[in-house]
Amino acid sequence: MEESTFKYKNIEITWLKHAGFRIKDSVVIYIDPYGVTKELEKADIILVTHDHFDHMDMKSIRNLSKSDTVIVHPKGCIIEGYQTCDVMEEDKVTVKGVEIQTVPAYNVDKPFHKAGCVGYIINIDGVKIYHAGDTDRIPEMKNIEVDIALLPIGGTYTMDVKEAIEAAKDIKAKYYIPMHYGAIPNTEADPNEFKAGVENAVILKPLL
């Protein structure tokens, strides 16, 4: 039976739904939390990839924040009333002992995501996790070497399953987790098709 959490070394990676994840070790990190209505563990850090409603969900951010939560987001996202750290493509910052690197995320032949959106590579206790954000398969992926890659497969706004399979071949990772499918219209996809084409793919079920 599929679980919501994948454990790697000391790290727990939980798929909330859509592009939302919780990464937990000595700190609690959320990436693009969306539709969080139930009580979950509060965040030390929240990462936002871009300002679309399904990625910068302010209600979810409020529900997960505490007094010292730091929100990392691209320049151009307007998030007020919180401790924030704004970033651009190819930035490197350290927040609460966690090394965070931004990488490009964009559409090649779609109008939805242009320059300014980002993906993240998080280095937490020596484990590197790549959250691709909303992106197509892009040339920059060939430079990425991580332990775990979180890749969108839903198509329409991002790469589809077939593209994601090819992207997984570009990215050097030990494990690949599909995301960004099934939660909003026009993102239906079969994760088992992704798993059939990608060695060491891990399918999670949404927690929410």
UniProtKB/TrEMBL annotation:
Signal sequence, start to end: none
* Keyword Amino-acid biosynthesis on entry: no
Q: Which UniProt keywords apply?
A: Hydrolase
Look up keyword Hydrolase and say if it applies. Answer: yes
Under the GO molecular function aspect, what terms does this record hold?
Answer: hydrolase activity
Say which domain of life the source belongs to.
Answer: Archaea
Q: Which PANTHER family match?
A: METALLO-BETA-LACTAMASE DOMAIN-CONTAINING PROTEIN (PTHR43546:SF8), UPF0173 METAL-DEPENDENT HYDROLASE MJ1163-RELATED (PTHR43546)
Identify this protein by name: MBL fold metallo-hydrolase
Q: Which organism is it from?
A: Geoglobus ahangari
